[in-house]
Specification:
Length: about 500
Amino acid sequence: MGEKRIKAIMSLLTAVVLCLLFWGCRAKDNDANEEAKGEGKDNANGVAAVENHGSTHGSGDIFQAIRDNDLEAVKELAKTGQKNATEGKFRFTPLMTAVEECRPEMVRILVENGADILQKERMMGFTVLTRINGLNRSLNLDEEQVRRKAEEMRAEGKGEEFINAFVRDNTPRIPDKFKGREKELKEICDYLRNAVEARKAELFKAIETGDRAEVRRLVKLTPLDEPGPGGRTPLMLAALMADIDTVRILLEERPNTSVMDKYGLDVIRQLVMLMSPAEIETMVEGKTRYGNPLDEKNIDGYTRKKMDYYKEALALIGGKPSTERKNQYRDIVACIRKHNSDMMKPQPVPPLLKAINEGDVNQVKMVAKETDLEKPLQDGFTPLFLAAMTGNVKVVEALVDSGASLDTKVAFFDKNVTVAEMIELACADMESHQRQGREELRKKGMTDKQIDKDLADGKFLPGMYPREKVEQVRKMEKVLEFLRKRAKAKR
């Protein structure tokens, strides 16, 4: 079985459990979330509202200290590792919570103490910058100006669908919880943007001076895909400076190498132009490739942008690149292309994970002897959890016989659960979901016989899990029976 097929199967199995438990946990948390401070139903600008799980900062909880507006407690806790802690099923950070609670002073304290502004939450992979960028855009939108522009477009004969889309995309979307607190929200947005710009300036200075130790420190704190001075990304500047070691440091953080500068060029096109500048040089000198005077009126916009970039690049590097520098550029282009190629390659599947997915019991026993079975193997799950998701009792038994603990817990959304508890949640949530879905279908006139037949035929029914997901959970129930027997035998 090929690696791609193995990964696809594992992704499907993991998705089954994630879907079941996600919706179950979500339903159970709804009542608590409605009472939480700062609850926001609007997440159109990037980040959903932070959940309140009822803990107290008296026991050292920075999240509750932020919600209670306890500035002194936040100052103390921000000096500890809690500044980058996470909570809830979506792994929100204290900085995200401070933004949602609209606490400018706490945002400043967290950032000054090293809170990671690039840390991503688990739901959509957003950072706090995603949130404040959306909020800042809404704060700067002028409803009256949008209305006047819509009237102008209507007078010009634009279609109503086009106009409505324009109005919808440019209407301020400030969540209700922020209304009346626009001043504090603006202060937060401005502070975070200024903090980011300051870090970008430090990173660009370190790249220009060749301070690689400082570059290595700052790449963890700075967004690498945003343009800085001159409209360049850090990677573009390091490449232009012919500093391949700094380029490698930046590539370790996986920046987007396809980002374009203000001239519409990505980093590779920039270097290629400097490596083979003959045609651009003649145009800059006011001549065609044939040596005739150049008629600038006939130059297209893209060519003019390339000419402007070439002039600016030469000014930055101090003249036309030497043969040695051109060779350095070639090495950097090769380095970036290799990086892009490596990023496209599928990651190797660990031997134990491969054996679990293939249901190869003998191989599982063999590899398990050389593997730490309590260490996460994929997506934060230990081998025993992953085996349980496949529903293969023999593989689970092989892992337990090899020493996998039944009591190990992993963080799953807002809970820490054992493998047995995970299966119990999956089974209970599936039963609840199917029961509610069946009731809705009955209201629409379907009989139980029709519902069962459609499910058996593999048809999609709104509100019901498909047959393959139900079958997968049934297999997990057999794993649960085995785990209970083993646990009872141990006692």
